[in-house]
Specification:
The complex is a heterodimer of chains A (215) and B (204). Chain A has 215 residues and is an alpha+beta fold. Chain A is built from 6 helices and 6 strands. In chain A, strands 1-2-4-5-6-3 form a 6-stranded antiparallel sheet. In chain A, strand 5 and strand 6 form a beta hairpin. In chain A, helix 2 packs across helix 3. With 204 residues, chain B is mainly alpha-helical. Chain B folds into 2 domains: 97 residues, RNA polymerase sigma factor, region 2, helix turn helix motif (Rna Polymerase Sigma Factor, Chain: A); 85 residues, Winged helix-like DNA-binding domain superfamily/Winged helix DNA-binding domain (Arc Repressor Mutant, subunit A, Orthogonal Bundle), CATH 1.10.10.10. Chain B contains 10 helices and no strands. In chain B, helix 5 crosses helix 8 and helix 8 crosses helix 9. Chain B starts with a helix and ends in a 10-residue tail after the last helix. About 12% of the residues of chain B have low confidence. The chains are: A alpha+beta (215), B mainly alpha (204). At the A-B interface, helix 3 and helix 4 of A face helix 3, helix 4, helix 6, helix 7 and helix 9 of B.
Chain lengths: 215, 204
């Protein structure tokens, strides 16, 4: 090994040289003299690295990141849930309700008349729009009315926040998934449910409509 | 969180993408120290280093974070983001606060046990002199020293983080060490700084 090779092939850990390099140092006084401070420097950097290894980011960084993670995860889950079976149901219910309202207005010649809920046939599902607009006094989903259960990861309906309730037919399995106790034998059936929609159209809570169809 | 300690970074990333908070915590705790130290050495400011750590890990939460396991390790990806943030920070000129002026939180802790107080003092002084010398290095040399010497990253991984050939990492390292020696000699305490250690052999 010559001097050039010695310096070109120094291992990453500068103080951990090979036997061939050690042999070269024994033969070459110039390299040996130059190598001594390099070796000490490498050892010093190693010690410095070890000492600094105990230094970590303050705990407040982790706290902030965890809060960001929870917020992001909640948003994602809610969005994916909103994209699932609720989305087409709500869309078709809105279209059906608008169609009925338009038809009533046209047939009755723009004369105001008391609203009465009726059965509307949506293309894929039967929908009973109960166009209720209310103002919530309590921030719990139960304040919406008897039997309402907040959907997983859905934000609470804030006090004085407007919401709409739409009655739909949904698979029993979807109700079970939303956390409503329903016999497993009814998972394959379609059941009537009231869905509370926030002003932006996202579903917030749901309740099972009893077999009698009244609440 | 013991079941997470055996999982790879990529596995933890997959889990956290599915909303597993503990996976995110495990990944953060595994990698934050090195990222923080890198940012601290490079920026010289603990406040900037905190911001950089936070930004780097927040990037993981974005759906389009751009991490590709085929192109490198997750650790390398985090260092890459941290490096970009450091550069941005240096360009803004925010990092003009020397480490000495930072709070104690940013300073490395003393060694737990020192049998010989004099030897301990010498070691501490020597490390401090070295730290100042590293801090005074130009940015391109400082980052190779921090990554390869202080964080013991392989040259190959450092090349990925720095986006340059491995030969460039080697040559920068060689130059960086020469500059460090020069700086230590200029400080008129070369023996204190450089000769305070006996060489250590790794058992690799």
């Amino acid at each position: 090994m010559n001097c050039q090779e010695f310096w070109d092939y120094l291992p990453q850990r500068g103080h951990d040289i090979t036997e061939a390099q050690t042999a070269h140092l024994a033969e070459c006084a110039t390299c040996a003299a130059q190598w001594a401070p390099h070796r000490a420097l490498a050892a010093g950097l190693h010690s410095m690295g070890e000492e600094w290894r105990q230094t970590e980011a303050p705990s407040r960084v982790e706290t902030g990141l965890m809060a960001a993670f929870r917020s992001q995860t909640s948003y994602r889950v809610q969005r994916s849930f909103a994209r699932s079976w609720w989305t087409p149901v709500v869309a078709w219910a809105s279209v059906a309700a608008a169609t009925v309202a338009l038809a009533v207005v046209l047939v009755r010649g723009y004369r105001p008349a008391p609203a009465s809920p009726g059965t509307v046939a949506a293309p894929h599902r039967k929908v009973l729009p109960v166009a209720v607009t209310a103002s919530v006094e309590d921030d719990d989903a139960s304040a919406l009315g008897e039997g309402f259960v907040r959907l997983p990861n859905a934000p609470r309906i804030e006090p004085n926040e407007d919401y709409n309730v739409v009655r739909v037919e949904v698979p029993g399995s979807a109700m079970i998934e939303a956390g409503i106790s329903l016999g497993e034998d009814r998972a394959a059936e379609t059941v009537l449910a009231d869905v509370a929609l926030a002003a932006d159209g996202t579903p917030r809570a749901v309740r099972l409509v009893p077999d009698g169809g009244t609440y | 969180m013991p079941q997470y300690s055996s999982q790879s970074d990529d596995e933890l990333l997959l889990r956290l993408r599915n909303g597993d908070e503990q996976a995110f915590t495990a990944l953060y705790r595994r990698r934050q120290g090195a990222i923080y130290r890198f940012a601290l050495h490079m920026s010289g400011s603990s406040a900037a280093a905190e911001d950089i750590v936070q930004e780097a890990f927040l990037a993981l939460l974005r759906e389009e974070c751009g991490f590709d396991p085929k192109r490198g390790t997750l650790s390398g990806y985090l260092f890459g983001i941290a490096r970009k943030l450091v550069l941005r920070n240096l360009e803004r000129g925010r990092s003009n606060v020397p480490l000495e002026a930072e709070t104690d939180e940013a300073a490395p802790r003393e060694l737990a046990v020192i049998d010989d107080p004099l030897a301990g003092l010498t070691r501490h002084e020597a490390i401090e002199a070295l730290r100042r010398a590293v801090q005074a290095l130009p940015r391109r040399y400082r980052e190779v020293v921090v990554l390869c010497d202080l964080e013991e990253m392989d040259y190959a991984d450092a090349a990925v983080v720095l986006g340059c050939p491995i030969g460039t990492v080697r040559s920068r390292m060689h130059r960086a060490r020469a500059l460090l020696l020069e700086k230590l000699h200029q400080d008129r305490k070369p023996r204190l700084a450089v000769d305070a250690w006996k060489p250590v052999r790794y058992a690799i």
